[in-house]
UniProtKB/TrEMBL annotation:
GO terms for cellular component: membrane. Its main location: membrane. This is Cytochrome C oxidase Cbb3. The keyword Metal-binding applies. Coiled coil: none annotated. One of its GO terms (molecular function) is metal ion binding. It is found in: Membrane. InterPro entries: Cyt_b/b6_C (IPR005798), Cyt_b/b6_C_sf (IPR036150), Cyt_c-like_dom (IPR009056), Cyt_c-like_dom_sf (IPR036909), Cytb/b6-like_sf (IPR027387), Cytochrome_c550/c551-like (IPR051811). Keywords: Electron transport, Heme, Iron, Membrane, Metal-binding, Transmembrane, Transmembrane helix, Transport. It is a multi-pass membrane protein. Gene3D superfamilies: Cytochrome Bc1 Complex, Chain C (1.20.810.10), Cytochrome c-like domain (1.10.760.10).
Length: 255
């Protein structure tokens, strides 16, 4: 560095050569025309690249905002959570027999610990100076195996997931005003429908009964014959009360 010229930047490599015991790099004078001022030339380039990525990321978040779901409900035991994409391979791993149920510890702790331990041991397992992949078969093979496993498990998780059901169960819906003095609601409470569908018909073990879009006759038919996880014969009351209940549910719509 010369007085008045500013600080110069040049690539610096401390990799020891095979036939040279010295770890000191050559003098900067051996790089004529390849140096540049750190400020503002080099640093300005770094900032420009960073600004491009930042603007691109902001555009992506505006164009595709994060999906939001309804408020968490600890009483809803039927909700199936879905992790972010970078954890999908672990999510899929826990679906297999040897990594779930009584073997949960294997899938949740043992397998990830082995993978992380292998990454930590990688520098000690291969200490050769070669940089070409073909001359480093073991670390390259392990890395390709890990990458292939993550890609496969992520793909399996995406393909086998019921995205339509996941979207429906987490939708934010407008609250419907419930008149608990309505004759239909009293039938609803009397028939213990609250146990599965909630006190505000918001759903729980059973589906949400607001905004169903069903007619009273369709609702009455489901009450008798059942649907999905609801077995037939759940309704035990009179036909007159059933009509009140069906009319009440069919009219529950968000304003």
């Amino acid at each position: 560095m010369h007085k008045g010229k500013g600080m110069k930047f040049v690539g610096d490599s401390r990799v020891q050569e095979k036939n040279n015991k010295s770890v000191y790099p050559p003098d900067y004078s051996e790089y004529p025309g390849k140096t540049e001022p750190f400020w503002p030339d080099f640093l300005l380039k770094e900032w420009m690249v960073g600004a491009v990525f930042l603007v691109g990321y902001l555009i992506l978040t505006v164009a595709h905002p994060s999906p939001l779901e309804g408020q968490a409900d600890p009483t809803n035991t039927g909700y199936i959570p879905m992790p972010d994409w970078y954890f999908l391979f672990l999510y899929q791993l826990l679906k297999y027999e040897y990594a779930s149920g009584p073997y949960n510890t294997i899938g949740a702790i043992v397998v990830p610990a082995i993978a992380i331990g292998a990454l930590m041991l990688a520098p000690f397992l291969d200490r050769g100076p070669e940089r070409k992949p073909l001359k480093r078969p073991l670390p390259v093979a392990f890395m390709l195996l890990a990458l292939a496993s993550m890609v496969y498990l992520t793909w399996e998780s995406v393909v086998n997931h019921d995205w339509a059901a996941a979207k429906k169960q987490g939708q934010i819906v407008k609250e419907v005003e419930i008149d608990q003095e309505d004759p239909g609601y009293k039938v609803y409470a009397k028939q213990s429908c609250i146990n599965c569908h909630g006190d505000k018909l918001q759903g729980g073990a059973g589906p949400n009964l607001t905004n169903t879009g069903l007619s009273p006759d369709e609702i009455a038919k489901i009450a008798h014959e059942g649907k999905g996880g609801m077995p037939p014969g759940q309704y035990k009351g009179s036909d007159e009360d059933l009509q009140k209940l069906a009319k009440f549910i069919s009219e529950l719509k968000a304003e």
